[in-house]
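Cross-posting from the modeling subforum.

Setting up a comparison between two proteins and wanted a second pair of eyes on the formatting. Protein 1 (sequence, then structure tokens):
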Amino acid sequence: MFPRVLLVFFLLSEISAHGIDEDLVITWEQKEKLDEFRTIMEPHLPHDYMKTDIYLIRWLKARNYEIPAASRMLQENLWWREENEMDALLDEDWTEFNNQYRFNLDGCDGNGAPVFVLFAGEWDMRRAALAGQSEKMRRYIDKCFEEASTVLRNMQARGSNATRANLILDLGSLSFQVQACPRWAKVGFQKTRIYIMEVPKLTGFFTGIPFYLYLVQSLGAHFPNVINACIVINTPEFAVPLWNNMIKPVAPPEVRKLVDVYGRKRSEWREALLTKYGIDFTKMSHEMGGDGRDPVDSNDLRKSDYLYECPELK
């Protein structure tokens, strides 16, 4: 009899065994739970990719291999996808939003996992809210995650070992006055807190915060274990307490574990990218400080039918 703790199964039917990571190695007990989970959920899954081990195991991991909880989570996601017509999401015209709210694919890490860069500091959330585009903004956030998931599936289908993507949130252009509150609000800053000096009314204050809350909540509820790490860089001082006090407490636990926040000292986050996440910034685009090829934006990703190959593998 094989030891239950030591026996592992390589999911060779879907991804080659070279460069195996934690998503491709499971114990015998976990394999039994995966088989049971598949038996329960497979009749309800509308797409073949949802029936693969790589897809199913994401939901089990998100609920610590508790089958009833994982089943509820996945079923609720299926209802959500149907209600929000997620299968047609990437076919919608996102050209304007893609240009205004940049989301790029900028190379791969040392294990061949794609690196996406979301320039959240440039995203004028307040503008979207005041223009009555809040719902579309939330849908656009889901579109970005759907694109990352689609790129991963296509990479796997072509022999890649990548099971998760890396996400960098660049807050370099973040402005509290522009993104968080209207012009009439006078805001003061201290090292660990934000205080309002004069606010005639609160309507519109922190209009950007709900979008960031939605980002972390949707990532946890609808795209579990799609992201390997969420690295926030160029974070201004005022944004740290916003994360610690407003966003982090309501983020799903599995999402909180993914997020690391770095300030505007480039040497620190560049060192962390390389040593902690295996992302060599010198191989990224010029905008990220490297000398690699230009990034692929969402418009070009769509034109390529979401096919991508790591630059060093070409």
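Protein 2 (same layout):
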Amino acid sequence: MLINKHIDIPYQNLPEESQFGVLPLSAFKGEFSNLPHRHDYFQIIWFIKAKGRHMVDFEWYDVEDNMIFFLRPGQVHQVDCESSGYSIYFTEQFYFTNRQDKETLFDFTTLFDTWKGYNPITITSSNSNSLIGLIDLMIREKENLDYHCFAILKHYLSAFLLLTEKEKMHRDANYMPSSAYDARVVQLRRLLEQHFRAEHQVIFYANSFSLTPKRLNEITKDCTGRTVTELLHDRITLEAKRQLSFSRKSIKEICYELGFEDPAYFSRFFKNNTALSPQEFRDMMFK
């Protein structure tokens, strides 16, 4: 892997300060673009023409023309290819400005969920033309900083996301569209992201919905195929892998940062979920 073990996982700054933007991929060339890095916003990377590979959370993908990657805030990725295309970036606050938006706009978050495995989407040429049209509309509308601009941009973005979800449904028979998700599972994802470091018990998350742990587990099992405990352990393990691979923190520091009081227990937890000890995993990443 192309890892620099002398720096912590950096956050790449936006090319421009905004809650929404669409730019050619060349605009993201910078200090960290060829190193493992992360962002604090949602990002859609569309490789229209590309040759090489792209790493997302320890998995390398051979990049093809018309391939789209969806990245959540905090996901570690690294681009190792020659490419042209576009990147759309936005914050959750931009998309869901108020409660009414949460009820009326397409819930994009399911496209970015990794609970059933992460995979990019390859777009057909017919849909590619439609998406290019939406990109052009977004670029033109962003220049109109008037009262209606953000609302129009949100709906163009919704159309882009819906078209890519439609493509994903056609290619993946096991993909569950957003309409099949229970809204509580979407909210649980947000809660896990906010609290996974400090709250390791299902009762905490069940209480947030005024449900029993058993009932919340039933809901998540129906929608994701996994229990709350499994989802929580997946998220803790992923963050441990990120820190072990891309930071200078000691194993003990990572243990405490992830809410464990006993480094020995953290090591057992990590090995149960990866079949490797934290030190073995770190050594493997730096071979």
